[in-house]
Amino acid sequence: MKIIMMLLITAVLWYFAGMFRQANVMALAVCVIVLSVFLIALSFYQRSRLRIRFSEKKLVAYKATENRIMLSAENKSLLPVNKYKLTLAVKYHSSETVTKKRFCGCASGRKMKSTGQAEFFLTAPYCGVIDIELKRLRVYDYLSFFSSSKKIGGVCQLFVFPSPKNMNIVFPPGGSRDDLLLSDTRSDKPGDDHSEVRIIREYRPGDLSRHIHHNYSAKTGAIWVKEYYKENDYIIDLYLNTAYSGVPSDELWDAFYEITCSLIFSLLSMGFSLHVHWYDKEKMGLAEAEIQNPSDCAGLWVQLYSADKSCTDDEFSGTADVGSSGTMMLDMGLVWSYNGSPVYKFDPETAESELSSAVFSL
Length: 362
Fold this sequence. Notes:
Shape: elongated
Number of helices: 7
Order of helices and strands: HHEEEEEEEEEEEHEEHEEHHEEEHE
Number of domains: 4
Number of strands: 19
C-alpha cells in the first residue's frame, strides 16, 4: 500500500507540473523519484550485506512454557538496518504440519563493530523435537516504503522435554524381583554398601564405624567417613513398544512421552534403577539406556527423539522379552503392563491428570 501511495503522489506531482508548467513542482517530483530509487537501491544493498543465523543450533525446552530463541544479526554494510522481517517455519519431527512465524528486528552497521542480538519466544504445545527453519529475510528502507527479500537457510532444533508427575504406584507384598519386601530393596542411609566411594565427609551420628577413613582422620584430627554410591540390585526393564498402524499424532506422542517420563521418575524415587529399551530402525533391533538418577533422563530424551522408532508388532516382539519378572511395557495404545499383565490404559486427552490422580496397583 505504501508503494502504491508513493507512486500515486509522484504521478500526481508530475501531472500538475506538466499541466501548469510549474518548475518547482516538477523539481519536487524529480526529488521524489530520486528518493524512491535511492530507497529501493538501499534495501537491495542492505539485504545483500545482512546475515541472520541462530545463536545456538540445539536448545532444550519444556512443554507449555515460553522458550527464548536467540538470533544473531551480522550487518556488513556501513549503514544500520532500521527494520528487517524474518519468516520462520516451525515443524515437529513427528508431524507434517508446518507453522509460519514472523519476527521483526534491526541491526547496527559495520562501524559499530558488534553483532546484533535478537530474540523471539516460542511456546511448545507438545513434547518432541521442533525444527525451526529460517526461510526468508525481508529488509526495509528507512521509511518502510520499499523492501527487498531473499531466501535464507539455517535450522535450530528445540528438544521439548516432558514434565514428570508423581505417580502413586503400589507394589504387592513381596513384589520385588527376589520375593523380598520392597522396603528391603532400599537403602536411604549413605554408606550402607561397599560399592564405589562417592565422597569423603565428616562423621555424623549413625554412620558405620567400618566406613571411617582412618588415614584422613589421623591427618586432620577429626573423624571422616567414606560415603559410597548407593548400590541398587533392583533394576526394572522398561520396554517402549512404538509399533503403530498409521502415523501417530502429536497428541499421542506427547502423552506417550509424558507417561514414560512420569514412570521413570516415580520408579527412581522408589529406589529402582531402570533399563529403558525401544526399537531403533537403523539398528534393526532394540536400543537401550540405563537410568540410575534423574540427570540421566536428558540423554534418554535426546536418544528417543532422534531415533527412528517406527516398527511393527512382529519386529518389536521378536527382539523384546516383555513377559519376564521385573519388566514393564508401554505401548502406543498407552497401555502400561507389568510382568506381562496390563496395569492401566491411559486416555491421550487426560493422561497428564491421570498420572497425578490415579492409584496404580501392580
